[in-house]
Amino acid sequence: MNDTDLAFASIEEIGKLFRKRKVSPVELTKLMLARIEKLNPKLNAYLTVAAERALVQARKAERELFAPRGRKGQRDRGPLHGVPLSLKDNIYTEGIRTTAGSKILKDFIPQHDAKVVVLLKEAGAILLGKTNMHEFAYGVTSNNPHFGPARNPWDLSRIPGGSSGGSAAAVAAGLCYGSIGTDTGGSIRVPAALCGIVGLKPTFGRVPVDDVIPLSPRLDCVGPLARTTADAATLLDPIFVRGRNESRLSNAAKSSSRRQVRLGLPREFFFKILSPEVEYAFDEALRVFRKLGANLKEVSIPLLHETEDAGNQIAWAEATHYHQQAGCFPARAADYGEDVRTLLELGAKVPATAYLQAMELRDTFIEHFHAAMADANLDALIVPTTPIVAPLIGEETTPISGVNHPTRALLLRLNRPANLGGLPAISIPCGFSPEGLPVGLQLIGAVTDEHLLVRIAHAFERAHPQLRRPLL
Question: What are phi and psi of 343, to 5 degrees?
Answer without folding.
Answer: -70, -35
